[in-house]
Amino acid sequence: MTLDASSRLVFITGASSGIGQALAARYLREGWRVALVARRVADMQQWASSQGWPAGQWAVYEADVRDEAAIASAAQACVATQGLPDVVVANAGISIGVDLSLAEDLPVLRDLMDTNVIGLAATFQPFIASMKLRGHGTLVGVASVAAIRGMPGHAGYCAAKAAVVQMCETLRGELRAHGVRVVTLAPGYIDTPLTKPNQYPMPFLMKADTFADQAFKAIGQGVRWRVIPWQMGVVTGLLRWMPRWLFDAIAGSQQHRKKQRRQ
Fold first, then answer.
1. Which residue of 22, 38, 96, 99 is most buried, as measured by CB atoms within 10 A?
2. Pick the catalytic residue: 27, 61, 157, 189?
C-alpha cells in the first residue's frame, strides 16, 4: 500500500532535542505530518513554530515516557487528533553512569531501565493492536552501539540498550505476519546535547542532521538493524566477535568518567 507523503504520520518521543528533533525536521521536509512527544512542550512548540512548518502538519503532546499513563494519553490524543501513525519512533532515552558498588546508584539504574526500556514498551504498546488490525506500520526502537558489549562505568546504559535490541527483535518476530515492521537503530556517537559534555574521544562523531538523513532512509526501507554511522558498524562487528578474554583485557584498561545526563 503506497500513501502520499502528506497523509503519512510519524510519532516521535524525545522530540525536543538531539536525534528526535533532527528526525522530526527530516520527516517534515519530506512532507510527512509529525506528532512530537516531549516533556518540555513549550520549548518544543516554540522551536517547531520557529521552523516555519505549515500549520496542521505537526502537533506536540506532553509526556514523560516513564509515566505510562501519560504516554498512553499522548498516544490516544495523537490518534484522535491526527490519526493512527504509520511510523512510531521510540527515541526518548537517557545516558547515566552507574557504579554498582554504590547503593545510591541503584535508583539511577532503575531510572535508566524505566526510561530506556519500559518507556520504549509504553511508547509502542498503544499502537500495536491497531497497526496489526490495519495490516501495516513501522515501530522504530533507538538503541545504541553500547548494546553490543558491557563497558566499564556504563552497566546500566549498556544493559538498557541491550534490552531495547532484544525487545525489538522479539516484536519483529511477533508482528511480521501482521504486516508490522520493527526497525532497530543503533547510533554511534552523535553530536547532540547528550554527548557534548563527554570528555573522552568519540570516534566517527556524526552531526544529528546527517544521522537523521540516514535513519530516515533505513526506516523507509524497513531494515531490521542498522548501525549509524557505518564505520561504527565495523567496530561493533569486531567487538561482537571479540573473544571475552581479549575484550576483558581491553575494557579493563579503560577509565570512563561518570556521566549523569538526560536527553
1. 38
2. 157
